[in-house]
Amino acid sequence: MHLLVPTNWDKELIPPLSQIKANIQIFGVLPTSMMGSGMSGPNIPQMTTKQAEEYIKLAHYAGLTFNYLLNAPCMNNMEWDEDTHRELLRHLEWLNNAEVDSVTVAIPYLLELIKYRSPRLKVEVSTIAHVNSVARAKFFESLGADSIILDSNTNRDFKLLKAIRDAVRCELGVLTNSLCLYQCPYEYYHNNTMGHATQNHNLLNGFYMDYCVLHCASSRLSDTSQFIKSRWIRPEDIHIYEEIGIDFFKIGGRAMSTEWIMNATAAYSLRHYQGNLYDILVALTPKMRYANSALSSTQITTPRSPPRVYIDNQALGGFIDFFKKQECLSGCGHCNYCQKIADKVVKLDRQETNEY
After folding, report:
1. H-type helices in 98-222, by residue range?
2. Contact 39, 16 (CB under 8 A)
3. Each residue of 237-259: pLDDT tens digit?
4. DSSP class of 31
């Protein structure tokens, strides 16, 4: 089994990861960079490049490889500015000197540039690039992609997954534990807000408001079927994807605690999780960042902690079989399968939820 595991830059994470009986690659990124990444937030620690280099060396000493994220979906056209383009090239040079093993990108131009300027680096296409068809997979492979993490919305479209597998030779991976809404209308906008917020040339110095996550959290809690429609993969169902030919499995959660990361990694490596599935799923909670912004001195009420959710993993045995025949893109309007499952396995306190 090949697992792509998040790092929160805690050195205490490395030893236990090295003991897991799986091929482990860890992924991470500095809080801000010239290119940015697909997630921001106060839980990501501030790191210097020197500290990152030391961390990557520790990972290598432990037998782990390192994937560095360059997966913001937009650079605000700064990649074409002469000065910032030089900065971009210097950043790639630093990644080479730091002996990063691979990088993850969402922008096709970056894939081509990295392959030309830093051929040693393996390049992975992010799920943020929305590779959701045979044509897109073949396109990115033609640009030189070594691996592709498929659009999470395709996770239960088994006919499509098989077709993409048959069409390309590069490695294919899936994101296992995201609670993002299925076919989320905020997804493209949300990825862009996160990308710009993590770029060091951003005019607002990282200011953002999690408008998208506020809506997503509200949608799930008011419509429990959304918990089931989300395209997460149970640890017990990993074998279905391996049989199709999926090569590796990405576990999201680099803003989570070390204990949480280890718990989720152990579950997927063991292909089993006893209890609350919600414990190993990434449900983003609303965050606000005001640094150097016009709103920095404004009093804004941020939401309280979300209500506790329980998803009975043992009661989900066999639920995935329905999707082997169902066409969700066209059939969701007249199907209530996910609501039936939610009524059976999702538990939450309705009063607490309504107050939230």
Report:
1. 108-117, 134-142, 158-167, 187-197, 211-222
2. no
3. 999 999 999 999 999 999 899 99
4. S
Residue 295 is predicted with a pLDDT of: 47
125-156 residue pLDDT tens? 999 999 999 999 999 999 999 999 999 999 99
Number of other residues whose CB lies within 10 A of the CB of residue 351: 9
351 three-class SS: helix
- CA-nearest of 252, 308, 257 to 278 is 308
How far, in Å, CA of 168 to CA of 157, rounded?
17
The pLDDT score that the predictor gives to residue 151 is 98
Element holding 347 (H helix, E strand): strand 346-348
Tokens at 47, concatenated:
């790191």
Provide CB contacts within 8 A for 296, sequence distance 6+: 290
Residues whose CB is less than 8 angstroms from the CB of residue 89 and which lie 6 or more positions away in sequence, other chains included? 117
In sign, the C-alpha dihedral spanning 5, 267, 22, 170 is negative
pTM for the predicted model, two decimal places = 0.93
Q: Give the pLDDT confidence of 183-209 residue by residue, as tens digits.
A: 999 999 999 988 888 887 777 777 778
At residue 305, φ and ψ (nearest 5 deg) are -60, 140
Distance separating alpha carbons of residues 58 and 63, to the nearest angstrom: 9
Task: Report which of 58, 44, 22, 100 is spatially closest to residue 262, judged by C-alpha positions.
Answer: 22
Between the alpha carbon of residue 92 and those of residues 17, 60, 74, 88, 318, the distances in Å are 27, 19, 17, 6, 45
Structure tokens at 234: 């149970």
Q: Say if CB 13 and CB 7 are below 8 A apart.
A: yes
* Beta strands at 288-289 and 65-70: parallel, antiparallel or unpaired: unpaired
Residues 244, 165 contacting (CB under 8 angstroms): yes
